[in-house]
Amino acid sequence: MRNVSIALLGCGTVGKGVIDLLAMNGPLIEEQLKTKITIKWVLIRDLQKYESMDLPEPIMLTTNFDDIINDDDVEIVVEVMGSADFAKECIEECFKRKKSVVSANKDLIADYGIPLLKLSQEHNADFQFEASVAGGIPIVRPMYSSLNSNIIEEIIGIMNGTTNYILSNMTEKGMSYEDALEEAKEKGYAEADPTNDVSGYDAARKIAILATLGFHSAVTFNDVTVEGIENITQEDIRHATEMGYVIKLLAIARQDDDGISLNVHPSFIRKGHPLANVGGAYNAVFVRGNCVGDVMMYGQGAGSLPTASAVVSDVMNVILHFNINITGQREFVWHEVKLKNQSSICAPYYLRMVVNNAPGVLAGISRVLADYNISIRSLLQKDETTEIAEIVILIDSSSDGLVKESLQKIESLSCVRKVANAIRVIEV
Amino acid sequence: MRNVSIALLGCGTVGKGVIDLLAMNGPLIEEQLKTKITIKWVLIRDLQKYESMDLPEPIMLTTNFDDIINDDDVEIVVEVMGSADFAKECIEECFKRKKSVVSANKDLIADYGIPLLKLSQEHNADFQFEASVAGGIPIVRPMYSSLNSNIIEEIIGIMNGTTNYILSNMTEKGMSYEDALEEAKEKGYAEADPTNDVSGYDAARKIAILATLGFHSAVTFNDVTVEGIENITQEDIRHATEMGYVIKLLAIARQDDDGISLNVHPSFIRKGHPLANVGGAYNAVFVRGNCVGDVMMYGQGAGSLPTASAVVSDVMNVILHFNINITGQREFVWHEVKLKNQSSICAPYYLRMVVNNAPGVLAGISRVLADYNISIRSLLQKDETTEIAEIVILIDSSSDGLVKESLQKIESLSCVRKVANAIRVIEV
């Protein structure tokens, strides 16, 4: 049987998953490929840390990428390090030496995916990155090989397990944001510094990758307007529940004749919508094509073995391509990116305000909204104390720009203590 | 730009969808392929029926398959006729003439998929059939190209829109089976003779195809044990709702060390499970891999444009293969099929019985269950009239064989009028 030697760059959660998966499912994989996969090298940063690790034969650990790049045996390099710069250098080097690459690195793909694809093509090397979005869920390949007969109109994803875990706990167990974050840290769902997840950057990278493929447009992380979940409180969660909604951090990419919009923000989504039921650390990606209609892919968006499932599947595809002397490269089509002005993007909003419990407050607020031509769909006022009241308003679809301006005006009213939150309602 | 001429066999719902889709999305498709797709021929049965149809240039209608098979221009034949025998002959002829084939025909693929794949390989032709399962939902290709690093343990699908529409209406609108079926017919979701759908045969064909690919085992329609939804009543629906379940027609394929089981039957599934929320004419396929865990694909499992989305995507893949001089053929691996004995397959069951409203009835029934070592999880007795009572029992996981035997015994008790229904509870 033919043998293909591969090298792993990185041996964290995903790298270990790849080693474990190949140990578990090796026979079935080899049977399908008629080829044996051997992990020859694993690149790590600190040899001491791995001294006691029980690695299957014949894996060699190295801290020197040269050992890998100079080894002609190595045909496929699996990059599971995360972070963009060093990974990019390594991958470029691989392509130049005609080694194919499988990457699970969303930071890298979101920012350098297209230049790397082009470089790989120049050198006739393969480049696969299914695991860079939503872990084990098949979405990258289906986007370009199964939904490609469609004009993609919308991609909406719950693509960050950490924030979904936090929001699910806030909804189901009535936990505060702080307590839910703390529990997510304890259970290993959130990192010590959770900014990347809770601020929405992680989801933004993933939606940039999917929008690039779905819309045939080279968008990057910087094109995404991002809001995190840090300001969501129990009050918001409770109001959402009462009104028949669930709050989720959604990554939303839309395309119409006027251009593309890319947003990550917490959103009200009606109970009963398939995305509303995606709980805990699960991910889901909802795609609307002009012919296929709505499709959704659901599964574990992170974790050692689920992510390794996508990585090894990519490795298998590269080997199947080797075996018939091709690369899996497609001539991707990239249109010029026409981004919509963020301030023109419309949605209904939920607004929560803390106001003085005094006459005339509601008149003042509704006057401002009327001045901006924003119409009120429903309104709820609750007296919190004799001095303070809470006003919750659902407004009809209004532009981001107008809503922001009107809220500034409302906040400047003397009777308004603060606009506590403004959350978009996603009607899909 | 290169041109590829294709022919459609059939011009029903799906065939028309293919014509419409290519008219709508042609430019984007051609841009991706750097190839123009021209529908040259459409094979139909009755020329008169299509006389008034406004077909785009340069489509020619024919009732004679020879026109197509003898036309060397035609590189890809799209078979969207349905039914197995004539389609099979046509496709075999295509392969022998080195024409590639895209088929949406589940009857054909479920019964002859593997021999046809082999024939296509012998003649170096391409053979794609994404649309044969669950319409536009990407599932066939993801199964063999994205989940192939896993040992697939379980595939559970809601793969028949007609029955799902009927059951959803029975659940949400309290309709009787008969009324819900009538409405499904009126709305075009059910055919005049609905047997194929309501008896579960359609779902059985689809699960046979997915199990073949997922388990690397050449199973066919005949290996599936099938029960339809004809016996589901409002009583069953109401009891399910009260107990926190939803009734769905599930197609279930399972594989473990002891073998494979293939079943289609109505099932209790707990509310909150992603499959329980699949409503109306939507389909969903839930797959459990030993590494990826649970993934689910959801979308429209039928309909003109959704199904055409999968068909045209297949055509695009064939052309991309042409353009690099390959076929998309994989060396599929087929293990020997080891089917489990149906009577050994275990599940908890919901049992509904109509009994005489008399002392000792419950004692008699519970005695029989105890004799078969079947343990009762919960029990509900309702007096319907002074003479008749209804008994609903949830039993712990028990084998198909034992349950059948015990129910025969129970039905033979003089106090039992009938065992009205026995429905498996699916715990996933």
TrEMBL record, chains A, B:
Query: CDD domains, from UniProt?
Result: ACT_HSDH-Hom
Q: What does the record give as EC number?
A: 1.1.1.3
- Annotated metabolic or biological route of this protein: Amino-acid biosynthesis; L-methionine biosynthesis via de novo pathway; L-homoserine from L-aspartate: step 3/3; Amino-acid biosynthesis; L-threonine biosynthesis; L-threonine from L-aspartate: step 3/5
The ACT domain, residue ranges = 350-424
Q: What's one Pfam family the UniProt record gives for this protein?
A: ACT
Spell out the reaction equation it catalyses.
Answer: L-homoserine + NADP(+) = L-aspartate 4-semialdehyde + NADPH + H(+)
What are the binding positions for L-homoserine in this chain? 191
Q: Which residues bind NADP(+)?
A: 9-16
Q: Name one GO molecular function term.
A: homoserine dehydrogenase activity
The answer to whether UniProt assigns keyword NADP to this entry is yes
Cite the InterPro entries for this sequence: ACT-like_dom_sf, ACT_dom, Asp/hSer_DH_NAD-bd, HDH, HDH_cat, HDH_CS, NAD(P)-bd_dom_sf
Which UniProt keywords are listed?
Answer: Amino-acid biosynthesis, Methionine biosynthesis, NADP, Oxidoreductase, Sodium, Threonine biosynthesis
Where does the chain bind NADPH?
A: 106
**Top class in the EC scheme:** oxidoreductase
Q: Which GO terms describe its biological process?
A: methionine biosynthetic process; threonine biosynthetic process
Cofactor(s) the protein requires to work: a metal cation
Q: Which residues does UniProt mark as catalytic?
A: 206 (proton donor)
> What family is this protein classified in?
Belongs to the homoserine dehydrogenase family.
Give the protein's recorded name. Answer: Homoserine dehydrogenase
